Structures are given as structure tokens and as C-alpha cells.
Amino acid sequence: MKKFYALLPILGLFLFACEDDTPIVENPEPTPEYTAGSADFTKYVAVGNSLTAGFSDNALFIDGQTASMPNMLASNFALVGGGNFEIPFMADNLGGMTLGGTPISGNRLYLAFAADGPAPTPVSGQGSTEVSNKLSGPFNNMGIPGAKSYELLAEGYGSVAGVSMGLANPYFARISSSESASVIGDAAAQGATFFSLWAGSNDILLYATGGGTGVDQTGNLNPATYSRSDITDPNVFASVLNGILQTMTANGAEGVIANLPNVTDVPYFTTVPHNPIPLDAATAAYLNSEAAYGAYNAGLAQLQLGGFITEAELAKRTISFSAGEGNAVVIIDEDLTDLTGFNPALINMRQATADDLMVLTSSSFIGTLADPANPTSINGVAIPLADKWVLTPEEQTIVENALTAYNQTIAALATQYDIAFVDVNSLLAELNSGGFQQADGSVVTATFATGGGFSLDGVHPAPRGYAILANAFIEAINTKYGSNLPGVNPLDYTGLYIN
Prior knowledge:
By secondary structure, the protein is α/β, with parallel strands linked by helices. The protein contains 16 helices and 18 strands. It has helices spanning 2-17, 50-53, 62-66, 69-77, 160-164, 170-173, 183-188, 202-209, 234-248, 267-270, 281-288, 293-305, 311-317, 393-416, 424-433, 463-481; strands spanning 44-48, 97-99, 102-103, 109-114, 117-122, 129-130, 141-143, 194-198, 254-258, 277-279, 324-327, 330-332, 349-351, 357-358, 390-391, 420-422, 436-437, 443-444. A five-stranded parallel beta sheet has the order 7-1-8-9-16, with helices on both faces. It has a three-stranded mixed beta sheet with strand order 3-2-6, with no helix packed on it. A hairpin with a 2-residue loop joins β2 (97-99) and β3. GO terms for molecular function: hydrolase activity, acting on ester bonds.
């Protein structure tokens, strides 16, 4: 320190001597003055599911929660008087959970590089988040992974005892205020001045990711009778969201609501081709012979001549393989005419087409052996793929019909409650079709693993994708409330986590 003071006279002489040579520095740009407009961001509470929580790479973990879309919003709100944003952090960056020491969920994924190429792989180790170790709230981020719309209102959804019976949610159990609490009850009790609501994707998504094995419950107004993979009745959905908004706005809070993306736009459904099977000439010939699919095709032809199926269905169901690349997998399709009453061997199977959407997880199943002792029992070739591995056009229509009804409700409720509205459906459709160019010239796309928009589970955004979503929310908020929040720079966030 003394040496520093001793230099001061010398430095002073140097500066004086060079005064005339000192370049003129223009005044820097003034710091922008941000305003909240008519909104009050003092107490911000985010309500939703995994998309709100910051779920990424098939798990919830600390870094993902830090890079959650609501936390990005809160950083903007802090510029105009927004308060602290408390997050119910997981115990580590692995993501796996235990209940009573027994693992109940897996770790996050990373891209491992093996001899046969890169593949999403769970991070090794045991996650240390124990569900029964309740955290002391309240928490501003009330995004509950896995929650359907009507479950956000369910009392007891945070019961630790209920988790072991499949009646409660482990993510909410560790942060709920009591065993009988509801997500919305705990969210509303915080007295938010501003809220975000993005809920309902699981009411469709779980049906879609299950390959349409669930039931479309349209017309059934009792969600207590639904299974996890069913589609929620649109009237139930509308009633639930209305109830949530009534509760969150009861004390005059303002907010923002987002509609739902078309789940078929995400990499989970756009990555695996319908025709990934390579065959040599001998194998193709055998599969087309009477010993294999030739007999099936002949049986179909006979029933078509008898008028039991149309020529179009005969063509759709006829199975044919060729030597080389690009053979379509064989799938079960429950929407085909049931012919097993004529011949038990004529099951509802056909080859997939470009209109079928193979689920992401089918990539590790297609080509495996149904019977390890039988080298010909190849799944997707000799053994048709079960319904859970593919979303057929008929099932896609069911998904689209529900999505249309839900999004009409969301838009109407945004108008009714006079809150900001974000068209996430259009945003993700744009990401899927062409992507978003960034300031450095790079483009964020929906391409699996390399596009930067989605994480390795193929459903949830990567941090950079969440940043693009956050900016859409900010834009809607600025437009509605007259604020001028700056948004975030997506390049500040990673496009893919590493191990």
C-alpha cells in the first residue's frame, strides 16, 4: 500500500504533462431507465408444471432451476422493483430423488459418446434429494413437474405419505405447507402482486408420449376417474383454469398466461424416422415369403375380396420389405379393422408411414430382440411395435383437437381476466420450422441434441430455449402493461448441459 501512495506524485506529474495529448472520450450511452408500466412486480409467483420449474434433460436439478424461465423473468422484474424470487432447489445437480432412501426418479441426462455414436445417458451417482425432507417455504417458483391442470387444485397433492401410494406429487411434497395443501393454495397464500400461469401441457403430453395408449376423456367431467395418460376433458380444463385465475387475481394481482405448444412439434416426436431398417437381400426375401409376411398379406387379400376390408385398407396393411436402407418398421394400429375373428394371425398391424410419429425412446428399442434366444425376433421387423412406441395420425388428431380446445380457453380467459397473453404455440412452431437467429449469427433450432432449443429428453427446452420463451413472456408483458423490460440474451445460457 505504501508503494502505491509513493507513486501518486509521479503519476500526477505524468498526467499533467500529457494533459494536452489526452484523447477526448465521448460520454457513454446513458443507462436505460426501465419502468414497470402499470404492473407491480414486487411479489412475483410463478404457477405451472415442469416447464415453469426449469425441468431439463429429464430431471429437475439446481442448474436447471437457476436457468428456469420464471427466474429469468424475475431478473428483469428486479430492474423495476421486483423482490426476491425464492426457488425450491433440489439437493444437487444429479436430479434423482429418493423416498425413505429408495430411489423414485432417475438422474438427468448428458450426451455420452460411445463407439456406436452419441446417446443420452443418465449421469452416474445417486441423487441426494430426499422427498420426505420438507423445505421451509414459501417459494415463488411453484412449478410442479408432472402436474396436470386439475392436480394444481387438489388438496393433499403434497402429501409425503401420498407419494408412496401414487396419490401425490414428490416435487410438491417436499415444499408443500402441509400434508393437505394444494399447489394453488400455497401459491395464492403468498399474496402475489404479479403471477405467471403456464399449465395444461401434461393434460395432453402424457397421452402423446405414451403413444396414445391412454383414453380421450372428452365428455367425462370426473377427473378422479382418469388415468395419468388420459386426455383431460376440455370443460374440466376450462373450469380448472378459471378457478386458478379467480384465486390468483382475487386480491388484484396482474399476470401473464401462456397457451400450449403442439406437442408433436417437439423433438420427442420428430427425431426417429419411420423407416430406419436396413436389410440384406436374403432377409428381405425371407420376410416377404409365405413363411413370414407373405401369408399375412394373402389372408388380407382374401378378406378384401370378400368385402370385409376396402382396397385402401388392404394396401395400407400389406407388408413389404426390400434390400437396402429405408425399410419402414412394422407397428400395431388399433384403428385398423379387427380381422382376428376370421384368422387369429391377422392382427392389427401395418408398416409405418411418414405420417406416423415414432417416439424418441423407440430408437433404443427398434432392432432389439424380443426373445434373446431367437435371433429372428427383431422388434419392429419380425415383431410389430406396440402402440406405445408410435403416435398414429388418428391419435395425432385427438391431440390436436384437445390442444385447439385448450388454447381457445386460454385465449378467452386472458381476455376475461385482462392479463397478458403469450402465444407459445406459434413460437415453438417457428422454432421447429426454421429456428431463431441469435446476435452472433448462430441459429437456435428444435433439432435434437444439437439445435440448442431443446434438452436431451426431447420435450423440455434447454436453457437457451427457456431464454427464448422468457423473451416472449417479456414482450407480452411489455405490450400489455406498458413496461419496457429488456429481456435476456439467449447466448448467456447454454444450449446443452455437459456431464
